[in-house]
Amino acid sequence: MTALYAWGANSHGQLGLGFVSEQVTLPTRVEDLPDNISEASIRLAVGGGGHTFLLTAQGRIFGAGWNNNGQVGDGTHGRSVPGFQLIRGLEGHHMIGVACGWSHSVALSRSGQVWVWGSNSHGQLGLPKDEVPFSSLPICLDLTNVVSVAAGLRHTAVATRDGRAYTWGQGHRGQLGHIDSEGQVVKLQPIPRVMDHIEGKVLSVACGQNTTYALTAEGHVLAWGDNKWGQLAHDPRNVAYFTCPLTIPHNYFGGERVTWLRAGWTHCVAGVASGAVYIWGRADYGQLGPSEDEGEDSGSDTTTNEVPAMRFRYIPNCLNLNKRIQVIACGSEHNLALIGGAGEDASLFTWGWNEHGNCGNGTTVNINRPVKVTLPGSLRVIGAGSGHSFALVKLF
């Protein structure tokens, strides 16, 4: 038997528990799922500013939460949706990916098509904002052969099968990677535009708040946009933001190939071929965990309330939880890690911003060292939104 648990901010019903509340500080089972969804079929849980999606093995998407701009995608807007609802307008399409911005949503079908809905206040849907100020139903964009989708605060990025990257939406911090004919940063791009000056074939994209990342076939990481907290892996005292893609030095990852990327609002996490995980960017909520020279005691919460010594770390730091990290999910400023080696039950560790109980340890104090969260079963899937979290477990 499989069960879905949720915790953290619930002011818009984004936990899907059937009610609205300020916060839920401990993992709580989502009891009232629709009849047409089986917990065991859930493959992905992802959240935005105040809304959440579940993606199933059957290629269906279910949404809940903040819906002031139709970002839940059930055909309504202007109210909260406290229980998961099937997204309308995608019938006949098998969806394989979904991402959330602050108040917009983007999904990817198995056929390589991209669907968007929610707020278009800054062109983040890839449609002229005066024609489509928002949409409460998915709209299919004129893009083909897409293999990866990502959403920032108010911008969107995709990668295509032939290795190109497209971006659109808000670009005031260079996060779109586009320059106009006069050499100025493009601050608003209302329709998808291919990225120039990218070296290598892009396999996937990830978005921070106002930063964009691309993973290439060579295992390199490209980054552009805001660097206020060192999220481009360059010293923010020297580089405030950058429009052209910067290649993050390969030696920052031990000279290894990067195989996956996850981004919070102002920090980034990368996994390399050996299984090691590197993390960098903003640090003042504890979202980077302890640095290597601070030592590590991941099983102890005695240092939970210590104030981090640094506000940022722009050089990626190897994250050590003393066990293999299988996958990480990033909220805005907090993280979830699914850890465990072969042949053993996976467990959940969380750390970072915890104002809404989004780390799931029963407190609202920020967590500077990863702590284990007790769940009644073996972990299968983890997911995070801005200030909320999810875990799918197989019950013992």
Automatic annotation (TrEMBL):
- The regions listed as transmembrane in this protein's record are none
Question: Which InterPro entries does the record match to this protein?
Answer: RCC1-like_dom, RCC1/BLIP-II, Reg_chr_condens, Ub_ligase/GEF_domain
UniProt keyword terms in alphabetical order: Repeat
Question: Ranges for the RCC1-like domain?
Answer: 4-391
Q: Return the Gene3D superfamilies for the record.
A: Regulator of chromosome condensation 1/beta-lactamase-inhibitor protein II
Report each RCC repeat as a residue range: 2-58, 59-111, 112-162, 163-218, 219-274, 275-341, 346-395
Give a yes or no for keyword Repeat in this entry.
Answer: yes
By what name is this protein known? RCC1-like domain-containing protein
Q: Which organism is it from?
A: Halocaridina rubra (Hawaiian red shrimp)
